[in-house]
């Protein structure tokens, strides 16, 4: 099924991205006679007219997203095939998209906002950019602790903040909790990214919620003391640093490690094969878990289609695709994690309302700065 060609300014239809990738470098189909080309053009024009009518009947949903995965694009195409609703995509950094929606105000064309981390979703909520959404489907597919208390955003995938280590230099029995990484034995051995990173901010925010500000700040100070190097790079860079011997244990999101296992970069594959995954705090408070999620915008023109779209992304089929292809844990309790995720073992999660990650974010950043975390 072709998607209609009429687009909102600034939007990229997801199916067009896939079509370009599939056709790139193949010019053989252009080597036809002029008569054949003319016939094909007439047929194409007729088909495009039919497709525009079908698209108009199906409607559209305009998506602002900070995610950038092939799996997502394929799911958008599948949603269009099943519903006739076209998905128009604007991609960008989360904070840039939030600022864009604030500038656009009631004139925004964005219907759905998707981003990683409950902290960012909370920022959009606090800016009055999202609306409360009633949906029996979403309530059934997404457990209460993975959605906003006011139903303004809904988690779609989970990721755990895990430890990865080199088993030749670290025995698993030496690992226990995030807090234990502040002990003297880990001096100059810990790799973790900057305090500007939202994933670390949310981890810190969870400590504030569970242990209070004093203990949370002490943890941040201890991590700074034990860093093997100044923070640099992303999560995968921390794992690469362990593999190269710059440090012995790294803090990173689980799905990044899955991406390394199946990477097109041999360096990442080799690094992942040399490391092991550990879920901290299993006998304490549980491993920190965050979500990638979606909210229906306050002023979007296609709210009904937007709800249907998010409901689709919470379905068993879509949740299975997120897990199999992008190595994220499903939030839908009826969906099993992929075989790779299951191979790492089961784990207990922190028992907190993820809304608090956003509520504690500003304080988390302040305490990390006070601790000297760059």
Automatic annotation (TrEMBL):
Q: Which GO terms describe its molecular function?
A: metal ion binding
Which residues does the annotated region (Disordered) include? 25-70
From the record, give the transmembrane residue ranges.
none
Q: Which superkingdom does the taxonomy of this entry point to?
A: Bacteria
Q: State the Pfam families in the record.
A: SBP_bac_6 (PF13343)
Q: Where is the composition biased (Acidic residues)?
A: 27-55
Q: Which family does it belong to?
A: Belongs to the bacterial solute-binding protein 1 family.
**What is this protein called in UniProt?**
Iron(III) transport system substrate-binding protein
Provide the taxonomic classification: Bacteria, Bacillati, Bacillota, Bacilli, Bacillales
């Amino acid at each position: 099924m072709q998607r209609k060609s009429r687009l909102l300014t600034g939007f990229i239809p997801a199916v067009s991205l896939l079509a370009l990738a599939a056709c790139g470098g193949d010019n053989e189909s252009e080597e036809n006679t002029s008569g054949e080309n003319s016939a094909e053009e007439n047929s194409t024009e007729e088909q495009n007219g039919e497709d525009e009518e079908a698209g108009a009947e199906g409607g559209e949903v305009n998506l602002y997203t900070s995610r950038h995965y092939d799996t997502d694009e394929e799911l958008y195409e599948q949603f269009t095939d099943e519903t006739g609703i076209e998905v128009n995509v604007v991609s960008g950094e989360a904070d840039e998209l939030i600022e864009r929606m604030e500038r656009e105000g009631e004139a925004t064309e964005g219907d759905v906002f998707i981003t990683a981390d409950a902290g960012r979703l909370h920022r959009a909520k606090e800016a009055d950019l999202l609306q409360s959404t009633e949906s029996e489907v979403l309530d059934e597919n997404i457990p209460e602790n993975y959605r906003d208390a006011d139903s303004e955003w809904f988690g779609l995938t989970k990721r755990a903040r895990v430890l990865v280590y080199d088993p030749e230099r670290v025995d698993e029995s030496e690992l226990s909790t995030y807090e234990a990484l502040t002990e003297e034995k880990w001096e100059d051995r810990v790799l973790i990214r900057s305090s500007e990173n939202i994933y670390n901010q949310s981890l810190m925010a969870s400590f504030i919620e569970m242990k209070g500000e004093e203990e949370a700040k002490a943890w941040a100070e201890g991590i700074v003391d034990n860093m093997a190097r100044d923070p640099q790079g992303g999560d995968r860079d921390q794992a690469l640093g362990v593999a190269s011997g710059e440090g012995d244990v790294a803090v990173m999101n689980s799905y990044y490690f899955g991406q390394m296992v199946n990477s097109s970069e041999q360096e990442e594959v080799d690094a992942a094969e040399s490391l092991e995954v550990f879920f901290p705090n299993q006998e304490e408070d549980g491993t920190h878990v965050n979500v990638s999620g979606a909210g229906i915008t306050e002023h979007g023109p296609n709210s009904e289609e937007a709800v249907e779209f998010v409901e689709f992304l919470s379905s068993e089929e879509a949740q299975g695709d997120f897990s199999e292809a992008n190595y994220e844990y499903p939030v839908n309790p009826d969906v099993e994690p992929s075989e790779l995720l299951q191979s790492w073992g089961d784990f207990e999660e922190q028992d907190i309302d993820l809304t608090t990650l956003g509520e504690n974010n500003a304080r988390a950043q302040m305490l990390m700065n006070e601790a000297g975390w760059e």
